[in-house]
Each structure stands twice: as structure tokens, then as C-alpha cells.
């Protein structure tokens, strides 16, 4: 789906909207009957002295009030229910769409903007679905029926409010055209302001450490000021056009009452001097009052409609995005949909051993996008540094190596050499632009994505822990399949139990957002425990012990060395982390510069030997 199809959502709840429309129509007709009853009270009871019908007329007014309450409640409930359901479905579908997009999409957009679209823009759609849509229908029905009743009383006099309504409509259209662009700008600037605030709060400790509070406040103030100025521009539009509509509505009542009074006293010269009764004049002025409400609503509805249109345009930009990483597996196509149990059952037929081979792998990034090099890419998949060059840049160039199931591969290289890119390509966060990657002899592009990614446990250097219990973070993605005993075992293996057991609630302790309150080493040990608990065929550790002391690092390396039947890929800057690997590759500028065991590379006397000498 590359476009937000609101009609599809409205169609699903068409029955509720039909009930709301019928209730609204019935309530509107009751409102239109009220002036007629008043007319009879004045003409037949007060003037003609027919007191016997007064009780029936009063009961009629009471009935209109009771019926109005019932129909109004029915309309409001039906619309609110349907609108809430539609907003909920739009929001979850939008979130699913965002989740389906590839890593490249997130490299070029900030989280504040996405949050604004998921929350604020969907709220504008809720406004239309819950009450503004039915209000538009009510304005139309009320206007048409009011005109009909006024024409029945005196069609010449009815021309005055009709002309006023046309004038108000023209003004509303002019206002809507100016509001449309402004709302888009307001929402975009709101997204920027939200992102600035969210980024600052997430990094508040860094801000304080560098005494940057003043700079961050000024940066937020800049966006806040721009947001304020855009809202003032919106207000100027309202100040310009709303008084015109208000003036027209007030003049309608005065002119209608003035001319109607002359017709009551002197007669209508266009109808041969025919006079209106006092009751008809009162009824007519009440209908004119009924016309004022739709005219005044035009400005407010125009405001809401412009806001909703701007939100739909922003959401459609997301829906227009297509994932770069797509399912090529025939099995994945069979299991497309929401049947997760069926998918899991079919994916389980893949018994992955862990043989990995890179065959002449090349990965290029376009200079037109936001892209980046390794260590920011070791945080952001090597694709987040802005570049003005239109020339594609090679992150990896003709990389080839293989590793058998159960063996350990060490990867070393300087910052920006492409180490983390290898892992991101293996997990299909990005696709190779040349060559192929095979798992157990199968091109990973032919494997279902869930199968591939469930086969690989990663401990990335960019540590992310959710605001959940330690137990919940370790069971991430496999809450039902990982037992409590396995959680405890993983904590012991990663030496995380040393500090977890000292906590009051142990592994049930809730940690803050991104692991706030834990040290870097503690967070690393929890992420290592998370990877070990999954017991996958392939284990990846991307500089995952950099925050640990030497003793703890050696103990964890000893645990890793004892793991059997698991293919391990260790990315590190320390020789101590990879020296026992079955094979070590050294990357330099995206190419495999050296390959061999620890002893072989030392004997070679190249980059690995230089690193060894500098560290030892």
C-alpha cells in the first residue's frame, strides 16, 4: 500500500456512519419543526385565542427536546466509536508500515518527525472521522432544509440569507486556500521542535557534561519561535476572514427582521401587498438564526479540513516509501499476512548450521543520500553521514571469506574500514550491491527474513535496552521460548549476575530508558546475556566488550570459547578478543587486506602485526 486510503476505513464502518447520518437528519428535522410550533403558538394561541391547542403545542416542544437529545446522543456515540476505531487502525497500520521500511529510510529521517506523524497527524484524521465529517453533512442538510422552510414562508425574503450563505462560502474557500500551506509548515516545524526536545532529553547527561544547556535552550528557542510565528500567521488568516463571516451573520438577522417587520405592517409589494403574520416573521427569524450556525461553522470546518489534508499529505509521504529489503523467498510469500503461528511453523523447517561465505561482496552507497562511514555506521549501519557528492561510494570492495559452522571468525580494521557493514549485510539490514552472501550454501536473499534474522544473535556496539525489566530485555523477541533457567544461565555466562543479584528485585528490576542507571559495562553484559539466551546458530559480537575491564573481558571470552555448535563472529579493536579465532580477517578501506590465524598474521608482518606491536 503506497497511499493512505481513508475511504477503505470509512467503508468498514459505514453502518455506524449511516446510523449517525439518520440520527443527525432526524434531529435536524426536529429542530426545523420547532419554529413552526412557535409560529402556531403566536398566530393561533396568542392572537387567535385558540387555547385548546396550547397543550399539544407545548407537548410538541417537549417532544422535540427529548427526541433531539436521543438522536444527538446516538449520532455522537456512533461517530466517536467509528472515529476512534479508524484512528486506532490508521495508527497501527502506519506503525506497521514504518516497521516494514528498510534501514535506509531511518537513516534520512529523525525520530521526532516520525513521532509527530504517528501521533499528531493521525489525531487530525481522528477529528475528521469522529465529528468533523458528520458536522459537514449536518451543515449541508441544515442549510438545505432551512432554505426550504424559509422559501415556504416567503421566498423573496429568503433570498437575503441565501446570498449571505453564498458570500460566507466564498470567504471560507479563500481562507482554506491560505490555510492549506500554512498547516503543512506548522506541522513540519512542530516535528522539528519535537525532535529537538527528544534528542536533547535523551542526551541530557552529555549536554550537562559539556555545559551546553545554554546552546540547547537557544536551539530549542529557535524552533519554538518559528513554530510561534507560523501559528501567528494562522491567526492572521482567521483574524482577516472570520470577522467577515461574523459580520454577514449579524447583518442577516438585522436585515431579515427589518424587512420582515415592514412586510408584516405594510405588506409585500412584490406579492400585491400580501402581509406576513407575526408568527411567520418569528419563525422566519428563527430559521435565519439556524442559518447563522452553519455559516459560522464554515470557518471552523475549513480550519479542520485544511489541517487534516496537510496531515494526509504527510502520511502519504511515508506510505509512498517502499522497503529496499524485500522478501524473495517463495516460503515467505506463502506466509505473508498475520498468521504468525503458521509462519513460525514453516520457518522451523530450516535447520541452519551456520556455514557463512562472502563471495566477492561489494556494497556501495549513493552520495545523494545521507550516508556514513563506519563508526558512525557502527552505530547507524554505516549510512548516516551527509555527503554532497553524487558519486557512489564503496564501503566494501570485493570482500570474500568463508567460515564453517561452529568456527570463530575475528574481524579487525581501523575505524571506517567496513567492519560493521559486514554484519549489517549478513542480517540483510542492507543488500549487497555486488556478489553474494550465503548461509549454509543458500543466498541469504532467498531465505525468509524472519528465518535469517532469528538465526543470528547480535551484540552491537550501539547498545539499546528497552524501558523494561532485565528479564524482559533478555527475553526480547522470544518471551515464550526462553525459560527462566535459561535467563539465569545467560546472566551467569555474561557475568551480569554479579550486579543483577545485588539488586532488590534481581532480574525483575525495571531499568530506565536505554539502560539509564546502568554503567556501560553493565549494559554490555546484559546485551551479551540477551544474545546467549537465544542460542542461535550464529553469534555476532561487535566490539561488545569494549566497556569491560580486562579481567571480566577474559572471563567472558573464556565462556564464548567454550560454546560449541555456534558460529561466532567477533569484531574488535583489541587483539586479545580475536587471537583465538579460527580465522582472522583484517579490513583496510573496505577490502580484505590480510587473512589467517593469529600466528599466520603475526608472521606476515603487516597491519595485524602493527596493531599487535602497538597494543603489546
Give me some keywords for this one.
alpha/beta; six-stranded mixed β-sheet; 10% strand; single chain; 616 residues
Overall radius of gyration = 35 Å
Strand content: 5-15%
Placed side by side, the strands forming the largest sheet appear as: 6-7-8-3-9-10
CATH superfamily of the domain at 6-319: ABC transporter type 1, transmembrane domain
Main beta sheet: 6 strands, mixed
Structural class of the secondary structure composition? alpha/beta
Discrete helix count = 22
Mean pLDDT: 79
Question: First CA to last CA: what distance?
Answer: 57 Å
Low-confidence stretches: 335-343, 368-390
The level of helicity is 55-70%
Task: Could you tell me the CATH topology label of the domain at 6-319.
Answer: ABC transporter transmembrane region fold
Q: Mind telling me the CATH class of the domain at 6-319?
A: Mainly Alpha
Which term fits the overall shape?
A: elongated
In the CATH hierarchy, the architecture of the domain at 6-319 is: Up-down Bundle
**How many strand segments?**
10
Amino acid at each position: 500500500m503506497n497511499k493512505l486510503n481513508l475511504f477503505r476505513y470509512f467503508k468498514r464502518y459505514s453502518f455506524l456512519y449511516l446510523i449517525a447520518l439518520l440520527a443527525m437528519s432526524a434531529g435536524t428535522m426536529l429542530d426545523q419543526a420547532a419554529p413552526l410550533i412557535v409560529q402556531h403558538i403566536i398566530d393561533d394561541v396568542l392572537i387567535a385565542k385558540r387555547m385548546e391547542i396550547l397543550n399539544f403545542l407545548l407537548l410538541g416542544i417537549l417532544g422535540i427536546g427529548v427526541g433531539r437529545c436521543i438522536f444527538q446522543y446516538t449520532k455522537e456515540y456512533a461517530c466517536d466509536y467509528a472515529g476512534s476505531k479508524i484512528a486506532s487502525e490508521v495508527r497501527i497500520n502506519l506503525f506497521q508500515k514504518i516497521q516494514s521500511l528498510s534501514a535506509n529510510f531511518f537513516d534520512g529521517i529523525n525520530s521526532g518527525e516520525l513521532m509527530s506523524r504517528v501521533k499528531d497527524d493521525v489525531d487530525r484524521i481522528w477529528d475528521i472521522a469522529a465529528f468533523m465529517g458528520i458536522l459537514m453533512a449536518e451543515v449541508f442538510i441544515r442549510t438545505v432544509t432551512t432554505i426550504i422552510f424559509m422559501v415556504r414562508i416567503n421566498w423573496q425574503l429568503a433570498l437575503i440569507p441565501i446570498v449571505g450563505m453564498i458570500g460566507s462560502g466564498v470567504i471560507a474557500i479563500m481562507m482554506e486556500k491560505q490555510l492549506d500551506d500554512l498547516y503543512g509548515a506548522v506541522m513540519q516545524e512542530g516535528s522539528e521542535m519535537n525532535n529537538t526536545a527528544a534528542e536533547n532529553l535523551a542526551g541530557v547527561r552529555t549536554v550537562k557534561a559539556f555545559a551546553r544547556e545554554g546552546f540547547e535552550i537557544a536551539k530549542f528557542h529557535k524552533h519554538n519561535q518559528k513554530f510561534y510565528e507560523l501559528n501567528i500567521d494562522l491567526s492572521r488568516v482567521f483574524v482577516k476572514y472570520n470577522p467577515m463571516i461574523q459580520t454577514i451573520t449579524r447583518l442577516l438577522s438585522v436585515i431579515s427582521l427589518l424587512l420582515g417587520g415592514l412586510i408584516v405592517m405594510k405588506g409585500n409589494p412584490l406579492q400585491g401587498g400580501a402581509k406576513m403574520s407575526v408568527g411567520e416573521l418569528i419563525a422566519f427569524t428563527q430559521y435565519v438564526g439556524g442559518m447563522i450556525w452553519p455559516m459560522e461553522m464554515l470557518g471552523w470546518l475549513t480550519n479542520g479540513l485544511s489541517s487534516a489534508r496537510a496531515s494526509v499529505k504527510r502520511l502519504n509521504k511515508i506510505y509512498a516509501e517502499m522497503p529496499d529489503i524485500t522478501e524473495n523467498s517463495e516460503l515467505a510469500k506463502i506466509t505473508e499476512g498475520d498468521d504468525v503461528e503458521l509462519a513460525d511453523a514453516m520457518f522451523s523447517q530450516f535447520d541452519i548450521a551456520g556455514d557463512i561465505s562472502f563471495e566477492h561482496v561489494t556494497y556501495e552507497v549513493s552520495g545523494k543520500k545521507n550516508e556514513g562511514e563506519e563508526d558512525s555506521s557502527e552505530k547507524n549501519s554505516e549510512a548516516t553521514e551527509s555527503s554532497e557528492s553524487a558519486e557512489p561510494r564503496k564501503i566494501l570492495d570485493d570482500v570474500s571469506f568463508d567460515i564453517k559452522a561452529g568456527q570463530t571468525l575475528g574481524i579487525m580494521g581501523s575505524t571506517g574500514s567496513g567492519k560493521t557493514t559486514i554484519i549489517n549485510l549478513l542480517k540483510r539490514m542492507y543488500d549487497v550491491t555486488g556478489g553474494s552472501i550465503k548461509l549454509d550454501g543458500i543466498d541469504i536473499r532467498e531465505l525468509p527474513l524472519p528465518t535469517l534474522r532469528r538465526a543470528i544473535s547480535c551484540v552491537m556496539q550501539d547498545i539499546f535496552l528497552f524501558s523494561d525489566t532485565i528479564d524482559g530485555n533478555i527475553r526480547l523477541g522470544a518471551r515464550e521460548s526462553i525459560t527462566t533457567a535459561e535467563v539465569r544461565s545467560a546472566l551467569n555466562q555474561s557475568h551480569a549476575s554479579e550486579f543483577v543479584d545485588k539488586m532488590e528485585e534481581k532480574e525483575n528490576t525495571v531499568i530506565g530508558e536505554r539502560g539509564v542507571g546502568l554503567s556501560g559495562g553493565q549494559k554490555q553484559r546484559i546485551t551479551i546475556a540477551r544474545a546467549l539466551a537465544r542460542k542461535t546458530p550464529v553469534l555476532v559480537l561487535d566490539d561488545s566488550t569494549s566497556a569491560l575491564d580486562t579481567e571480566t573481558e577474559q572471563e567472558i571470552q573464556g565462556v564464548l570459547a567454550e560454546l560449541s555448535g555456534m558460529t561466532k563472529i567477533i569484531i574488535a579493536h583489541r587483539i586479545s578478543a580475536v587471537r583465538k579465532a579460527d580465522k582472522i580477517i583484517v579490513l583496510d578501506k573496505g577490502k580484505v587486506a590480510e587473512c589467517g590465524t593469529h600466528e599466520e598474521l603475526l608472521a606476515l608482518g603487516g597491519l595485524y602485526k602493527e596493531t599487535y606491536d602497538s597494543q603489546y
